[in-house]
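pls ignore typos typing on phone
iron/sulfur cluster + seq
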Amino acid sequence: MTQLGLVVSLDRCMDTRGCMGACKQENNVDLGAFWVRTYTSTTGGFPDAETYFIPVMCQHCRKPSCVPACPEQAIRKREDGIVVIDTAPCAACGGKECMDACPYGAISYNERDNTVGKCDMCASRVDQGLAPACAFACNSNAWMFGDVDDPESGISQVLAAMGDSVHQLKLETGNEPSCYYLLSSKRWQDMDGLRAR
Ligand code: SF4
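k done
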């Protein structure tokens, strides 16, 4: 089995938002919508306050709750594990059930064509053997991309080496996200404690 996933080093992320800009440009994301958005975590108080930044996007869940929520069967998981939305059937639905079903707030509404959109890991780039635009554009080299089910892949070896510094968002949902975050030097906070800007 293959499960493509993303790893973001929060030790490296400086909130320069190169990922956000590259994503919008690559995917022609609507004005005001974001398929990846950086949140801020702040814990503790002076002089022990700690802050880090965390990009949140579709987590390409192994058990994606958006898929059964879609009344048009427009959302599907590819064989490589990427979760994609097929635009034509999506446009037939007037509801936003998938948006409500996603615990990560990863799906946004497109006013221009009454569809929804989200990170598809830049599937068209991936199909050409390229990395997603976010991973390519990050000038902090904070992103990694690859098959998290292949123990020989670079991404799997980084995850294995980082041990307790590996975190995932909202594991209690049972969605089994395929995105991982590395945070070795600060206190990890799950999504409910994060602040969007
Ligand atoms: Fe679906 Fe949300 Fe999981 Fe992405 S993060 S696969 S949109 S449930």
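DSSP finds seven helices and eleven strands in the chain. The CA atoms of residues 70 and 98 lie 6 Å apart. more later
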